[in-house]
Amino acid sequence: MFTGIVEEMGSVVSLVEKDDMVLWDGSTGHGTELTVKGNIVLEGAYLGCSICVSGVCLTATQLEEGQFKVGLAPETLRRTYFSSLKEGDAVNLERASEIGGRNSGHFVQGHVDDTGKIIEKWQDQDSLFFKIHIANLEILPYIVPKGFIAIDGTSLTVVDVNREEQWFTFMLVDYTQKKIVVTAKEVGDLVNLEVDVLGKYSQAAMATLIPRLEALEARVHGLEKQLAEKEIL
User: Fold this and answer.
1) Terminal CA-to-CA distance of the chain, rounded, Å?
2) Cα(226)–Cα(197) distance, integer angstroms
3) Which residues contact 2 (CB under 8 A, 6 or more apart)?
């Protein structure tokens, strides 16, 4: 679990496809390996620890001086823009949160739902606004005005939502603009999106409750109808 408060901006060292990655049974197979340069996130890091890279929870498979390696699963490549990463690209980095520690953002799992495309970017005094188009209609219901959303792993607040045109906006205050990667992105660039997991759990809970309420309502309506008929007789 993460907080969405980015600790540092790292950079991509390499993104390579390998045919000699060691699998669980000792055999080798094809896979994708990402090497990232960082400093703060390596403090206290250990093999197998989780590091959030631009919104994606990844497992450290190799630690070196000033950099670390992670494997990218096919699902990760499908859900994110990571297949287009190249050497020198900036990425947001955050270590896993500590139990009992402060959370100045929100509950970020590092499980990216999909990507969004920047369709507009403008300045409002010292704030920087972005408008993001969402192609995936399944995640749109979980994006609400003043609600949480993780953009490239950064905990941010949704400003406006237009469900018909499939976009939402968010803004960055001056301090945040200097600390995260999205500031340097332009119209047409992609961002990783993770909607608020609490919204997902609430929807799942309601999905099981609503049919029961509807059944109860139908039963009450039937009883009321029977009582009304008896009174007429």
Assistant:
1) 64
2) 44
3) 52, 57, 94, 95, 96, 97, 105, 108, 109, 110, 153
CA separation for the pair 193, 150 (Å, rounded)? 6
Nearest alpha-carbon partner for 154 in 9, 23, 46 = 9
Q: Alpha helix (H) ranges present in 9-161?
A: 74-79
The 8-class DSSP code of residue 217 comes to H
CA distances in angstroms from 17 to 31, 39, 173, listed in the order given: 6, 25, 38
The beta strand positions in 173-219, using DSSP E, are 190-195
Please give the single-letter amino acid code of residue 214.
Answer: E
Cα distance between residue 16 and residue 125, in whole Å = 42
pTM metric for this prediction: 0.85
What would the two tokens of residue 178 be?
A: 């200097």
CB 48 within 8 A of CB 18: no
Show which residues are catalytic: 2, 50, 57, 59, 73, 111, 157
Output the CA–CA distances (angstroms, integers) from residue 91 to 52, 86, 185, in the order listed: 10, 11, 12
What is the block-wise mean pLDDT of the chain (233 residues), using blocks of 10 residues? 95 93 82 96 96 97 96 96 97 90 84 97 97 95 95 97 97 96 98 91 80 83 82 62
110 close to 50: Cβ distance less than 8 angstroms: yes
CA distance 176 to 122: 15
CA distance to 24, 29, 68, 146, 229, per residue, from 171 (Å): 44, 43, 31, 11, 60
